[in-house]
Structure formats: structure tokens, C-alpha cells
Design goal:
Blueprint: H1 4-12, H2 15-27, H3 29-42, H4 46-53
Length: about 60
């Protein structure tokens, strides 16, 4: 079984995957960081945010 880092390296060896990964890092991750910071500063849990937006917090993966 491959590790997460091995799978990531394999995926990023493909040009199209690497390009999209870099776009997400550049465009979407700063927004995610801002949302997470705001949630923490407001003292809200993931479950509280999920309830406010009308969705569910995903269950942890136990593979």
C-alpha cells in the first residue's frame, strides 16, 4: 500500500493535476484559511457552522 505522500507525488507528476493543485493552492486555500480563522475567532465548532448553513459535518473516515 502506498503512503499519502507517495500517492500525492504520483498524482502531481501529471501536468494537469499539478496545474489544478497549484491553482487551488493559490486561489482557494487563502479563502479556506480565512474561514477557519473566522470560525475559531467566533468560538464556533464545525458542527455549529454546519447547523447554521443547513448541512452536516462529515463523519470521520475509518478506512
Amino acid at each position: 500500500m502506498r503512503t499519502h505522500e507517495e500517492m500525492k507525488a504520483l498524482a502531481l507528476s501529471r501536468s494537469a493535476v499539478r496545474t489544478e493543485y497549484e491553482r487551488i493552492e493559490r486561489e482557494e486555500m487563502p479563502l479556506l484559511d480565512m474561514v477557519l480563522t473566522a470560525r475559531r475567532e467566533a468560538g464556533l465548532s464545525q458542527a455549529q457552522i454546519a447547523e447554521r448553513v443547513g448541512t452536516n459535518v462529515p463523519l470521520p473516515f475509518h478506512g
